[in-house]
Amino acid sequence: MFHVKQTNMEYLKGCPVCETEKSSPFLEVKDHFLTGELFTLRKCEQCGFKYLNPRPSATEIGKYYESQAYISHNARKKDLFSYAYRLARNYMIGKKYKVLHQFAHPQTLLDIGCGTGEFLQYCRSKKMEVFGQEPSAAARLFAQTTHHLNVKESLDEYRDRKNYFDAITLWHVLEHIHELNPTLEKIKSMLKPGGLILIAVPNTDSWDARLFGSFWAAYDVPRHLYHFSPGSLKDLIEKHGFRLLATLPQSLDAFYISLLSEKYRTGKSSWLTSFFQGLQSNRIAKRTGCGHSSMIYLMTAENR
Ligand SMILES: [Zn+2]
User: Fold this and answer.
1) With bands split at pLDDT 50, 70 and 90, how would you rate the model's confidence at 76?
2) N or C: less crowded end of the chain, CB within 10 Å?
3) CB 209 within 8 A of CB 203
């Protein structure tokens, strides 16, 4: 699907959703989080999907994830921003569990990209049998030693578990995965017949994405490789034989993303401004149907 043109960067030959080779430049975006480097997003001329191209290869992307900051952000820092982040996260964990149980009562769960494992820990406390996968060694170690969770580095370590899981979740993870299409096929093979797949991703059609443009925090280059709209996500999953059951908003994300984006744009945090931007994003999502800042997609596999 891709070929290497220069060291460290790989060029996708075609659109990851529809495989069309023709694309046009969409936006130049800076890595505001870590390196300050500039990256190019391209838009597929056939289906409109937006993706990072060229991009750091899977072996090179690690340096764009600062593991120390990642862990401290999750568990240790005491500043107001980290406190608010943790408060929101703990509230979200309960909400996530409810969303997952809205249409079914899954017992076995695989959380892909489980991070430090707080969602899995919560699900285990509700008597679910839980498994995780996390490529970051620091986050994985934290989940294993602090929460005593079963977390593997790679999905391939679960290759023997065919038709095993009642539910597979990817909370803000799909946009990070280099092997996008092969991963969706692996998910399909590990899922039990009638099982549930949950994918949460930012929405590039949202009002806050349009408001902030290249400062929109959910572009998060080069860690986010793909920028889904409700339409492109549906195209992708239907290509793999999944059927969409429901689309739900992640309303709190509009506030978090606005806060970060405003900080990237102006150099400082503006809590009040960001609060109203978050409200406006959610309000316009409801009124126009463009979708919220982040969306949750619940689906099942057609042929399972
Ligand atoms: Zn396309």
Assistant:
1) low
2) N
3) yes
Residues 103 and 97: their CA atoms lie apart, in Å, by: 12
The confidence band for 3, taking pLDDT boundaries of 50, 70 and 90, is very low
pLDDT for res 226: 98
Find out whether 291 and 285 touch, Cβ atoms under 8 Å.
yes
Q: Categorize the per-residue pLDDT at 178 as very low, low, confident or very high, splitting at 50, 70 and 90.
A: very high
User: Which is nearest to 243 in space by CA: 289, 197, 202, 203?
Assistant: 197
> Which helix (H) or strand (E) element contains residue 108?
strand 108-112
Distance (angstroms) between ligand 1 centre and the Cα of 112 equals 25
Q: What value does the mean pLDDT of the chain take? A: 91
Spacing, Cα 74 to ligand 1 middle (Å): 35
Alpha carbon of 148 to ligand 1 centroid (Å): 41
Buried b (16+ CB within 10 A) or exposed e, 227-237: bbbbebbbbbb
CA of 96 to the centre of ligand 1 (A): 30
Six-digit token string for 4 = 């290497």
Give 186-229 pLDDT, tens digit per residue. Answer: 999 999 999 999 999 999 999 999 999 999 999 999 999 999 99
**CB within 8 Å of 228: residues ≥ 6 apart:** 49, 174, 175, 201, 202, 203, 204, 236
State in Å: Cα 232 to ligand 1 middle.
Answer: 8
The answer for residues whose C-beta is within 8 angstroms of residue 267's C-beta and 6 or more apart is none
pLDDT at position 66: 75
Asked if 125 contacts 148 with a C-beta cutoff of 8 angstroms, the reply is no
Q: What does pTM read for this prediction?
A: 0.91
Whether 75 contacts 41, CB under 8 Å: no
Please name each of the domains of the chain with its CATH number.
2-301 (3.40.50.150)
- 20 CA from centroid of ligand 1 (Å): 5
